[in-house]
Structure formats: C-alpha cells, structure tokens
Amino acid sequence: MRDKSFYVFDWHATLQSDNPMLHAADAAFTAGDGVLFSVFNGFP
Predict the structure, then answer these.
(1) Can you give the pLDDT at residue 2?
(2) How many other C-beta atoms lie within 10 A of the C-beta of residue 23?
(3) Do 21 and 38 touch, CB atoms closer than 8 A?
(4) In whole angstroms, how far apart are CA 11 and each of 2, 4, 5, 8, 17?
C-alpha cells in the first residue's frame, strides 16, 4: 500500500474471486484472523 503497509488477500479461503478473505499481515493470515472483502471497513 502507499503507506508501506500490506494486506494478504486469500481467495482460496472463499473460492470467490469477488469476495476474498483479507488479512492485515502475514501473522494475521497465519492466525486465521481475517475479514471478508464484502464487509471490510478497514483494519485498526
């Protein structure tokens, strides 16, 4: 991202190209802490 942060987009979790699971970073992906793109409002 422009602010040097990054997200992990996980299409395999949902198998929906228009609604991947989003994770704030690698650690959140590993922990399974994600949110669906369809309800994503930003990460704290």
Answers:
(1) 84
(2) 22
(3) no
(4) 22, 22, 20, 10, 6
Counting Cβ atoms within 10 Å, is residue 24 exposed (0-12), middle (13-18) or buried (19+)? middle
pTM of the full structure: 0.75
Phi, psi of 36 (to 5 degrees): -70, 145
Give the integer Cα–Cα distance in Å for 22 and 32. 10
pLDDT tens by residue, 1-44: 788 888 899 999 999 999 999 999 888 899 988 999 999 988 87
